[in-house]
Amino acid sequence: MTAVPNAVMDYTTHSRFSSPGRYAALLEGLPPDPVALSAISRNLIVHYRASGHELPSATKQEINARWLRAMLAADQSRHRVPLTESRDVLDRVQGCCRDHTLFCVGALRSNGIAARSRVGFAGYFIDGWHHDHVIVEAWRDGRWQRFDSEIDAARPTLPTPMDIGHCELDSTGFVTAAQAWMGYREGRIDPETYGVDPTMPVFRGPRFLFDEVIYEIAHRFGDEMLLWDGWGRIGYPGEPVSEEHAVWLDDIAGLLVAADRGDLAAEHELLRRYRADEGLHPGSTVIQASPYGDPPIAVNLDRQDAW
User: Fold this and answer.
1) What separation, in Å, do the N-terminal and C-terminal C-alpha atoms of the chain show?
2) CA–CA separation, 224 vs 226, rounded Å?
3) Tell me, what's the pLDDT at 6?
4) pLDDT tens, 80-92?
5) How confident is the model over 251-291, as pLDDT tens digits?
6) Which of 24, 56, 176, 282 lies most in the core, judged by the most C-beta atoms within 10 Å?
7) Residue 242 pLDDT more than 90?
8) pLDDT beyond 70 at 306
């Protein structure tokens, strides 16, 4: 296990989602530098709704390629060349922030570097709005370094996208889902400014914050789920959160924040809760919704060829 203080998992070991499978050779020797690796991720994956291009309908279901090896299979079915060779935008694998991050996490783990994905909210895309977002956290130079693999250059609201510091609520940086939930419960943020997009009134607010914390703990412990998967206590968009469930989540969010501060006891308790509580961890089957509005489907996670 790599020497990562206050960690209860070996983050150099692949999860079932980050494993490249028979495509492992594609990841060998890729640069661990966040700038170079992020550029490769953007060459491989195009955001399904934020690229500025009309993407092919024939490949739109690639957004459900939850396994890294499925993304690599889709890419290689069209290219059959190293990941460093340029791909046309329209020929890239359709995905989102979760997929850019999973690729980077998988590449880093394949090269012996501890890495994990972090779920939360980014305040640097639209002024006054906090998008749900997933970024990379890699163990570099004796600390966890966060970077946003979707960002190709510094911007006024994010001057250091390859080294995002721990930020305060309502900043233009990145805050974890647990931070946002605690801020909401303490009356320090407006939950209606945290969600998918300002034009989508259902996908924001307390329910959205609640569900994101469950995604955050799942990703932390190697279940890098799609952001539209449902299981346990994840609810329907816009559904009220009962006070009983809110109090239950308060404890989880508090442990997540404490663990990020280096509290090893909190990290151990968090993992224990995650494994024991069916409201937190996915079982063998999850309900996969669709950003396109397609009917939800049940997906068996034991079938790792299923998208």
Assistant:
1) 31
2) 7
3) 78
4) 999 999 999 999 9
5) 999 999 999 999 999 999 999 999 999 999 999 999 999 99
6) 176
7) yes
8) no
Can you tell me the distance from the alpha carbon of 16 to that of 4, in angstroms, rounded to the nearest whole number?
A: 21
User: What's the rounded Cα separation, in Å, for the pair 51 and 99?
Assistant: 14
Closest CA to 45 of 23, 70, 24: 70
Give the C-alpha separation, 217 to 210, whole Å: 12
Cα within 13 Å of Cα(286), Cβ side: 32
Residues whose CB falls within 8 Å of the CB of residue 113, separated by 6 or more in sequence, listed in order: 2, 12, 32, 138, 139, 140
Q: How far apart are CA 304 and CA 73, in angstroms?
A: 13
* pLDDT, tens digit (0-9, with 9 covering 90-100), for 179-198: 999 999 999 999 999 999 99
Q: How far apart are CA 182 and CA 104, in angstroms?
A: 29
- Partnered with residue 288 across adjacent β-strands are 229, 297
- The count of C-alpha atoms lying within 13 angstroms of the C-alpha of 112, restricted to the half-sphere facing its C-beta, is 2
Whole-number pLDDT of residue 1: 44
pLDDT band at 307 (very low <50, low <70, confident <90, very high): low
Q: Is the distance from CB of 225 to CB of 282 less than 8 angstroms?
A: yes
DSSP-derived letter for residue 240 is: P
3-state secondary structure of 252: helix
Query: Using CA atoms, how far apart are residues 134 and 196, in angstroms rounded to an integer?
Result: 12
Tokens of 279: 């409201």
3-state helix, strand, coil in the chain (%, to 5): 35, 15, 45
CA 136 vs CA 34, 109, 120, 156: distances in Å:
9, 12, 11, 21
